[in-house]
Amino acid sequence: MKFFMKVFMPVVLSLGFIFSSVSAEEKTLVVYYSTTGNTKAVCELISKELGADLIEIKDLKNDPDSIKKAVSGGMMKMKKGGAPAGMKGKMPPMSKLVMDTDISPSNIDFSSYSRILIGSPIWMGKLAPAVNKFLDTNKLDNKKVVLLTTSNAAESRQRQETYKAVVKKSGADVAACYQIQVKNEQKANRSMEELLSEANGLVPAIKAAFRSELPLEKTLIVYYSRTGNTRAVCEALGQELSADIVEVKDLKNRMSTFGIIGGMLRTFLSMQTKIFPEKIDMTDYSNVILSAPIWAAKVRLPCVRPSI
After folding, report:
1. Do 246 and 221 contact (CB within 8 A), yes or no?
2. Domain residue spans in the chain?
3. What is the pTM (predicted TM-score) of this model?
């Protein structure tokens, strides 16, 4: 992740500045809820870097220790709605969590703030109950909002869009959604130093999102990847740019020796190959990024070109 941030943050910044319009008079507020302390730590760092005011939301009905046990065990029995679909009978009552909770403070005066960052952990694929309550009881009309989530696993772009949709119901103009993954690929907890370093790396992108006075133009990333390296890079870049992503697949097997040789030969001779999808509708996009590996000293575009 650090490698991706170093390589692609300049790209993110340059795109952000294109749409930026700064107002020194605007004030920023960071509002967050934290169970284990991860969201608290990253929001405190970000608020300091933004020069923003900071408010912590307290959950008045859910006991912190019970929440930690439920979240760490990955099992929650909710008082409202029961177990998630497909999990009935598999979830011991480790903790009974109140989803329609009460919070403190319940109402916040946003009159002096034009920009708000909301920090929330993700529970069972949803924003924390305290954050949902905050959004239900506070109107964020005409406020530019950035959502920051912390979760054990990487959240898909589709999942992030559902979080943004929840925030938009409060009347907010959601400029961006960012996430910090608290566990590594081996599902072990990342160190606080790693989390804070990643949070610090997000600050320039958050500033750029807040500066945008107009909705950012939609960006599409189209890529081909054989080994997974290009895929990993494009997924990281797509998250930072809030871009849609389309993977182009070569219908020929390029993992075998003959497949690799055939692919390199086609690349060298600028020959096309059968791909999926063959056509991509780009009418809604003003910015398109193409990404492909280098084969035979040429960009592996035969897999991308027919779909454009």
Report:
1. yes
2. 26-62+98-211, 219-307
3. 0.58
Class of domain 219-307: alpha beta
Each residue's pLDDT tens digit, 46-86: 999 999 999 999 999 887 776 766 655 554 444 444 444 44
Q: Specify the amino acid at residue 174.
A: V
Distances, alpha carbon 46 to alpha carbons 32, 54, 205, in Å: 11, 10, 11
The closest alpha carbon to 136, from 172, 188, 85, 173, belongs to 172
CATH T-level fold of 26-62+98-211:
Rossmann fold (3.40.50)
For residue 252, which amino acid is it?
A: K
Provide the total of helices (H) and of strands (E) in the chain, helices listed first: 8, 17
Topology match between the domains 26-62+98-211 and 219-307? yes
Alpha helices (runs of H) in the chain, residue ranges in sequence order: 2-18, 38-50, 64-73, 129-137, 157-168, 192-211, 229-241, 257-268
Count of CB atoms situated within 10 Å of the CB of 26: 13
